[in-house]
Amino acid sequence: MMTPLRILFAIGSCLSLSAHAEDSAILSGSQLYGFVTQGYIKTDYNNFYGNSQKGSFDFRELGIGVNNKINDTARISGLYLSRRAGEADDGHGRIDHLLADFTLAKSKNSTTGIKIGRNKIPFGLYNDTRDVASTRPSILLPQSIYYDHSRKFLINADGIDLYHESWDEVDYSRIHLLLEKPNGVDNPQTENFYLGANWPGSLKSGMAKGVRWLKTFNGERTKASLFAAHLPISYEPGQFDPLGKGDITTNVSWWSLSHDVTPRLQVSGEMFLTRISYKNFGPFFPDRSIFPLGYYVQGIYSISDKWEVLGRYDISYKNKHDKNGDTWNAMTGLPKHNMFAKDLTVGVNYHYSQNLMLSAEMHFVDGTAYLPTTDNPNPFETNQRWKMLATQVTYNF
Amino acid sequence: MIFKPALILFAAISFVATPQAADLPKDPIISVIGNPLGPPKRLSRAEARLIFSANIKTWPNGTPVSIVSMKRGSLERSRFSHQVLNLYEYQLDRCLQRKIYSGHGDGNILFVNSPKEMIGVVESTPGAIGYVEETYLVDRRAIIEVAQ
Known about the structure:
The structure holds two protein chains of two kinds. Chain A is mainly β.
């Protein structure tokens, strides 16, 4: 998809040149920003982001972004990102988002616009900034909602995002209609997620349709969000492939709610409901539907201008009709605990300055559903009950 | 293993780093100021939060909202965030960074280096809203009252 992105760059450059006539420092303002994050992960059993049983520094994120307001109705924004996360992410640089945002209509309390290019997929409370440590409440986001073991197709998509935002004196709301093609579908990680193994063939994404609604209440104290999407994927068999030319349809919804009990205490919860249907893969992979499910509750308390603490209970099921993994175990012989994960997390952030944040968190986990298979290739060597200590330092500018 | 000491450390931090309302200086007083064209003369705290977290794009008269802020990490910004918005500065930053890094940021925040520059930019930019220590204000007509 480099060609459309180059076109986008060209559009942006032209708009930028035309905007030099603007006299106001604010209207022609452009911002350059970025971040560097380094993490350390230690587990007692199982591996997460590298060989974490021995202690792993294989977790780092680097990003540099630009946002340029061309004039009152046009803006470009982009972020170049490198992410290293064990065997799951190799640190190569990529365009995280690159878009042109045009205001189509505006009134005294609303704006309607369209974002064209590579957009972030805006599900949940955190997905559209999930790789920016300073915007996350914890080092790892709740894995029931924000999969890291098969994250690539959940990050960004190329297409259009038509949005309408409105506000009154104390609250705002936004609605997005998305018509986009997700990136990161054709890779071993996503194939593993959908088909349970890396088969000889390849996955091809169709055009996804999505809608996102977000609204705040009580003077922004309460925030509710819903994201629903339909994603068709086709499978093209490779040589000597036991699978046929099949189709996968994903219908998904994410439900999110957060509430500021006081300005210092925020409580939030999210739920992830999905139906994944398989058709025409042949006798080795009968037609069927599965229903992954995930949810969590979380509290974040800002103790002072330096410290904040977090507690969270996070539950993932790979199939809500087989929560304990009995059917899975009978079908495949693989461990039951591959099908669920219950994660109790406590964490702390220390804001040394506005630019530098240090974080640490402990995970007490029952189940291995969210372990990256690339870091744990043999499921029989995984342990059902495991603990993880994660630490992180992040600098942003 | 290191897991038990780590857990004890978390518990210790939670108890030791107790809420310290006094850890941010309360004086001098920070006032919100606005250009005569656009911002209202009176705001609630919730309205101020909505504006300074860049969630309002135009004033009721149609003028675009332009936020003027002291540099990140400055004492003035920290005091403003605490006194006026009742947020720690990192909470305000998190709201703004979520807009910017999601590609939804609109770059309408202008960062300035001094109270003098702040007053000058707010005076000369229609729709501008900012803040300054009261002692720097010569013309108090620019003050926007924020109900606490």
